Amino acid sequence: MTGIMGAAIAPVGRLLRVPTVVFYDTEFATRTNRWVYPLATFVSTPDSYRATVRGNHVTYPGYHELAYLHPKWFAPDPAKLAAYGLTPPYALVRFVSWQASHDIGQTSLSSDEKRSLVRTLLDRVPVVLSAEGTLPSDLEHLRLRGPAADIHHVLAHADLVVGDSGTMVSEAAVLGTPAVIIWPMVGDVHTDQISYGLLARFKPNEFEGAVKQSITFLTHGPPARAHERMLKDKIDVTEWMLQFFEHHSHEWS
Fold first, then answer.
1. pLDDT tens per residue, range 46-68
2. Which has the closest alpha carbon to 187: 66, 43, 45, 55?
3. Does the domain made of 78-231 have the CATH classification 3.40.50.720?
4. Most exposed of 41, 177, 187, 216 (fewest Cβ within 10 Å)?
């Protein structure tokens, strides 16, 4: 069995003696990592992951988003934007519900800050919102509506992605779209993506700086060849997974 985070598979695998390979990249999810990692047969993380892993730890030079968004497996299709009524340029703003276990006790943007961010971006480009749960009523008309399966095409063709979703900003960076994340945590994968100039990170109390950087990305884009350099340094994670599973298959048969 294999999966992300591993809370559902690691204890079952240990109980039934079924090999489990857990993929994860969230070091601050300490509540689950503390007990999941020792139960897994292997824990696999990006090589930028700096937290201690209690268990059999293997790393790869990439991000798990590159298992499905590597150019070998994903090609942005501009025709997919029609279902959303989108035409570049535009900015995508993402707000999450803050209901994940590692979000407990954390805070994000207020409704007024969300309004301010959106209005500032609207002065420059059209804006669409992707949100878990409810939005302030005056922003609801901007909610992204269309087939969820095609969201990565929307990310790839956006001029900017900004918000409080750790996964979506990482996906944007992997696709070469500059992204700004506003949240209270610090993730090592994001730090690595920041080093390429594809991502900028701000805490909620640094809201004004986040807005300023968003405008900079809209105006100038990411550094030249940043996406190319990132892809050159990283691997096709799906291919790595297949080789890893095949290498160890004789131990598990």
1. 999 999 999 999 999 999 999 99
2. 45
3. no
4. 216
